[in-house]
Amino acid sequence: MFKDITLKDFIDRTASKDPVPGGGSVAALCSVLSCSLTEMVTNLTIGKEKYKEHEAEMEDIKEKMSSLSDEFYDYINKDADAFSGVMKAFKLPKETEEEKELRKAKIQESLKEAAIVPYEVAEMSFDMMKLIKLVVLHGNTNAVTDGMVAAMLSRTAVLSAILNVKINLNSIKDETFVANYREKIEVLTRNVAILETEILDCAQL
């Protein structure tokens, strides 16, 4: 849906009164951009005699970033679809008791999906930061700030996606589900701050 449109079109659609793409999709886009910057640093490192010791590592990270970029692109659409699912569920008929019960069930089901999708973005983005740290440490020093920007974009993706998880958890009645995801996002929130600081401290600027 959004993968093949221009950047200008995406920005215009985000600015419109249409609720999709929204914050969740933009979080995934941040990770796409993070992948691109990280891959750029690997390309500026590979083939340089000075960094030959880490060439295999850079080749591996480059390949992983290319694959992750495609996954995050898909999550731009997945998040929009999940939100649309919630909106559709709320529009279901509620005239009879049977319709009301079906509507409630569908709303809860769609809300869970709308929480799971951004959580997956947050988790993947955090894991990606571990690779970015290696690029900042071992990649071309002339592009170290690009790696650091990639890390900050990933951090933004993590925290932005977590906000989307939280707002959906507020309406979910399944207490076990909610408690499980609240615990997960608390850990992620804490760990992403630590990891970002570690990455930014790698370079003395």
Question: Could you outline the blueprint of secondary structure elements for this entry?
Answer:
Layout: H1 7-15, H2 23-45, H3 55-90, H4 97-138, H5 144-169, H6 175-200
Helix pairs in contact: 2-3, 2-4, 2-5, 3-4, 4-5, 4-6, 5-6
If you had to describe this structure to a student in words, what would you say it looks like?
- With 205 residues, the protein is mainly α.
- It has a single domain, classed as Formiminotetrahydrofolate cyclodeaminase monomer, up-and-down helical bundle (Four Helix Bundle (Hemerythrin (Met), subunit A)), CATH 1.20.120.
- 79% of the residues lie in helices and 0% in strands.
- The chain contains 6 helices and no strands.
- Helix 2 packs parallel to helix 4, helix 4 packs parallel to helix 6 and helix 5 runs antiparallel to helix 6.
- The longest helix has 42 residues.
- The relative contact order is 0.15.
- The model has no long low-confidence stretch (mean pLDDT 95).
